[in-house]
Specification:
Layout lengths: L4 E2 L11 H14 L9 H20 L9 E4 L2 H12 L5 E5 L4 H14 L2 E5 L11 H5 L4 E7 L11 H11 L3 E4 L18 E5 L11 E5 L37 H17 L1 H19 L5 E3 L11 E6 L4 H12 L1 E2 L1 E3 L4 H7 L7 E5 L6 H19 L2
Length: 389
C-alpha cells in the first residue's frame, strides 16, 4: 500500500496532512468528552475547539458576523437534506441542474414523488457549464429554492455561482450551493457571490476526516425543523430550540471530527488555496496533454481547463469503465473511481450512462508529477492493448 498512486481525491482526500492526524490524536486523548453538556474544565476545553472551528469556517466562507449560524452535520449529504427538506414542501418549485450529485437529486425526487414538488433541471453545455441566464427564465411565484453544485464531482467544471446568485438575490429566492468539491480548492465568498447557504463536507479538500460536514445559513433565511432531539442546553423546553446552531444540530456532534476539520482547514490556509489549486491544475493539465491525442482514449469536458478542478474523466474505447479501473488497480497500483459517480444525470447527458459510466482521476495536493506520468503511461498501455484485440 505504500506504493499506491492515489487518484481518488474526488471521493475523499488521502493521505491527510500530518497536522490532522496529530491534532485528532491529541484532542481525543486529552479532551475527548461531550462539549457543552457540563461545566467542568475538559468539557469547556472541548467546547472551545468546537466554537473556534465555527468561527474559522464562518470567516473561511465569509458567511457573516454570527458563527452560530455555522452548523455541523455528518457530511454534505446530511447538510443538503436539512436544507432541502427544511425549505421545500407541497406546492413548491425548485430549480437545480443536471450536474448535481445524488445528495441533491434524490431528496428532490422524493419531494416530487411524495409531495408533487416541481423540479426544473437546467442542463450544462458541451463544455460542462450551466448558463446563468437560464435561471431567471425558470423563476416562478412558488420557486422556493435554487440549489447548484458549485464544482462537478464528475467533470470538474466550476459553475458561475456569483451570476446565478445575483439573479436569485434580485428575485428574493434563496440560493444554496453544494460545495462538496469546491470548499478547500477555490475561494467561496458568500457575500460577494450572493450565496445564502453553503453545504460542505470535511473529508474532501478541507482535508479533515470522514463523518463531519456542515452548512452556513445567512441571516434572513428560514429553514424549518425536520428533526428534534437533545441540544445539551435548555432541556426543559418541550420543542427543539429555535436559535442557531441548535436549530440544525441534533444530539452529540462529532467532536473528534470537528477537531480534525479544524486542523485540515488550518493546513489549507497555511498552504494557500491558490497554491493548492495551481498545483492540482498543473497536474490535471499534464493528464489532459498526455492523453488527449491517444487513440482509443475518450476525454469528457477537458478541452479547456479554465474554471476547473482537478477532476479528470475519460474512457477507453471497447472497455467498460470498471474493467479499466480494475487494470489500473491490479497492474499499475493506481486507485481511481469508475461508474456513475452518484451523478446519473451528468452521465445521461454525456452519453456515458449506457456504457456504465466512466473512469475518474481525482488529483489532490499530495500527488506528484511522477504519479501523473505513471497514470498517463498506464492508460496508454491499456488503450494500446485494447486496440490489438
Amino acid at each position: 500500500m505504500t506504493n499506491i498512486i492515489y487518484l481518488d481525491n474526488g471521493a475523499t482526500s488521502f493521505p491527510k496532512p500530518e497536522k490532522v492526524y496529530r491534532s485528532m490524536d491529541e484532542f481525543y486523548r486529552n479532551f475527548g468528552v461531550n462539549p457543552g453538556r457540563s461545566g467542568f474544565d475538559l468539557c469547556l476545553e472541548a467546547g472551545e475547539v468546537v466554537e473556534e472551528t465555527r468561527k474559522l469556517l464562518t470567516k473561511f466562507f465569509n458567511g457573516g458576523k454570527d458563527p452560530n449560524r455555522l452548523c455541523f452535520t455528518y457530511n454534505s449529504t446530511d447538510a443538503l437534506n436539512l436544507i432541502i427538506f427544511g425549505m421545500v414542501d407541497e406546492g413548491d418549485h425548485v430549480i437545480t441542474t443536471t450536474i448535481e450529485h445524488n445528495s441533491v437529486l434524490r431528496p428532490l425526487y422524493h419531494l416530487y414523488r411524495d409531495k408533487g414538488v416541481e423540479v426544473d433541471h437546467i442542463p450544462f453545455d458541451s463544455r460542462g457549464f450551466v448558463d446563468p441566464d437560464e435561471f431567471p427564465k425558470r423563476f416562478k411565484k412558488n420557486t422556493k429554492l435554487v440549489i447548484v453544485n458549485h464544482a462537478s464531482n464528475v467533470i470538474g467544471t466550476i459553475q458561475p455561482i456569483a451570476e446565478i446568485g445575483a439573479y436569485c438575490r434580485e428575485a428574493g429566492i434563496p440560493f444554496a450551493i453544494d460545495a462538496s468539491q469546491s470548499a478547500g480548492k477555490i475561494p467561496i465568498d458568500m457575500e460577494k457571490q450572493n450565496i445564502d447557504i453553503v453545504a460542505f463536507t470535511g473529508h474532501k479538500s478541507l482535508m479533515g476526516p470522514t463523518g463531519i460536514g456542515g452548512l452556513y445559513v445567512r441571516e434572513g433565511i428560514y429553514i424549518r425543523h425536520t428533526r428534534a432531539g437533545g441540544t445539551g442546553v435548555r432541556s426543559a423546553v418541550r420543542t427543539h430550540l429555535e436559535e442557531y446552531p441548535y436549530r440544525l444540530e441534533y444530539g452529540t456532534i462529532n467532536t473528534l471530527g470537528v477537531a480534525g476539520l479544524k486542523a485540515g482547514v488550518e493546513w489549507v490556509l497555511e498552504q494557500g488555496l491558490e497554491n493548492i489549486h495551481a498545483h492540482e491544475m498543473k497536474l490535471t493539465k499534464m493528464l489532459r496533454d498526455g492523453l488527449q491525442d491517444v487513440e482509443g482514449v475518450v476525454l469528457y469536458c477537458q478541452e479547456d481547463l479554465t474554471n476547473h478542478t482537478g477532476i479528470f474523466l475519460f474512457n477507453i474505447e471497447g472497455l467498460e469503465a470498471m474493467h479499466t479501473g480494475t487494470m489500473l488497480d491490479v497492474d499499475y497500483n493506481i486507485a481511481c473511481r469508475t461508474g456513475l459517480h452518484c451523478a446519473p444525470l451528468v452521465h445521461e447527458q454525456l452519453g456515458t450512462a449506457k456504457i456504465h459510466g466512466a473512469v475518474r482521476f481525482g488529483v489532490g495536493p499530495f500527488n506528484t508529477e511522477e504519479d501523473i506520468q505513471t497514470a498517463i503511461r498506464a492508460v496508454k498501455e491499456i488503450a494500446a492493448s485494447q486496440r490489438k484485440k
